[in-house]
Amino acid sequence: MLKTRVITAILLVTGLLLTVFLASGQVWALLTLAISLFAVAEWANLIKLSRTQSFSYIAFAMLTGIFLLLITNTSLAPYQHIANLVLLGLSALFWILVAPLWLSQRKTCQNRFMMSVTGVLLIAATWIALVGLHQINPWLLLGVLATVSLADSAAYFAGKRFGRHKLAPNISPGKTWEGVLGALAAVTVYGGLLSFYQQLNPWLIPALWLLVAFSIMGDLVESLMKRQAGLKDSGQLLPGHGGILDRIDGFIPTLPMVLLFIDGLQFSGLNVHG
Fold it and tell me: Would you say residue 73 has pLDDT above 60?
């Protein structure tokens, strides 16, 4: 299983690097939209939509994404930007207010309509962040992806080696507090190296800690949904990793928050895109 997981990870990283740096903005947007639609399909499966409902759900998400792409360079572009900010803001509110309450109570939401809206909102915000951060700077996008991936890998190996105290045994028994500490230690070193060699503000390190916290929350929310749906993985598309949601659960909270923060700084008059 570990060998399969490593091989899949290598292929994913290679494909990511090639597309991040070689693909045009439009190609990147289309590729990430396609990946997002796979995630929407897995979300539909987790909340037990019927085949007809799932088809309609995916079609709605696809048409919405295509519409947003088509109006990018038209007179409707300012409204698109406002819609993007609204989606990013709603996503942030979910992870700051709703997700902690949901995880603490571990209640099952039986309202499929609300769960469907939540899924489209969170995945659409993630797609918007993937496109927006790539447009700002591919290295910025890669830095955020690397932070979450490094934290996830460090948590996995630290938990395997030192794990004794369960983080959320009723949601994800494999996760431990030792794994969390391993993730924080890894991103601290990573942030320290970036701050030193790139002459960045040392406040980057606490910001990375915050990203780790939200990435763990994203992982736990998806684990809770899988447990409530009676599924081990969100899908079988990625050998050794499960489905798309299993791979991007830590990115769903973090990417939109980073783009929202950057847009907030730009709105306040600070140029962070240069």
Answer: yes
> Which pTM value belongs to this model?
0.92
Structure tokens, 155: 């948590």
Q: Indicate the number of domains in the chain.
A: 1
Looking at the domain assignment, is residue 178 inside a domain? yes
Which amino acid is residue 223, in one-letter code?
Answer: S
173 is a domain residue: yes
Q: Quick one: pLDDT at residue 243?
A: 92
Domain assignment present for residue 273? The answer is: no
CA distance 218 to 96: 11
pLDDT score recorded for residue 98? 95
CB 146 within 8 A of CB 171: no
3-state secondary structure of 261: helix
- Residue 174 — φ and ψ, nearest 5°? -80, -15
Q: How far apart are alpha carbons 252 and 92 in whole angstroms? A: 10
pLDDT computed for residue 274 by the predictor: 40
Looking at the domain assignment, is residue 189 inside a domain?
Answer: yes
Q: Which helix (H) or strand (E) holds 190?
A: helix 177-197
